[in-house]
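Before relying on records like the one below, remember that each one covers exactly one chain. Contacts with other chains, cofactors or solvent are not represented anywhere in the record.
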Amino acid sequence: MRKPLLLSLLVLGACAPRPLTLAERLGLPPLDMIAVEGGSFEMGDVFERADDDATPVHPVAVAGFRIGREEVSAAHYAAFARATGRPYEPYDERPPLPPAVGMTWDDAVAFCAAYGYRLPTEAEWEYAARDGGRAVRYAGTSDPDSLRPFAWVDDVTAPGPHPGRLKRPNALGLYDMSGNVAEWVGAFYQFYPAPGTAPDWHDMDLLNMRIARGGSVYQPPDFAQTFRRMASLRDLAASDLGFRCAADAE
């Protein structure tokens, strides 16, 4: 018996190959992404509840997603820049290369999009940094005296960010969520919601303000706290500001 035309088309569509991403077409090296199971957590300053930018603490539900195991490296971004004709010079070209820095928010968005990815939302970033929403002050520990094995912080003499994977990862296997380079995030709350009200995401098309998370090697440990928010204009390109990519769950 011949299959109905509609069923035949559905079968053919299911077998159609996935379109190649720009990164695949350009032969760019793949990124190491890990899956994070979704869940609910209390977002914000769950410790002192005193940070004006991270209060009031509010419940957030996060769907499963994927996120880069480490910050995008200078090697990855340099390959992308060469292939797409973007200006970029890593501050240190000796391997192993440190994270890519000096990109605007839009540069970071373009890089992730080339892989079919995006920047993590602010809620996803905090959820991942906090080991899946646990009350963890820094990525990997809540004890300031135990921070050094997990994070590059508070070193104004450092010539630049350090290569990834030199410190210990957090419980999800993510490196440098606290310290080394601050990280651009995608969608974010302009202000945290008042009790009893639904949170509103920032309208990315209206204002130029963006958020970075995690603190950097040059900043004190306070900036490396998992709830700490740092506001910036989207066109800032700083020597201690990078990013990691994210994507919806497969």
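The first helix runs from residue 5 to 15.
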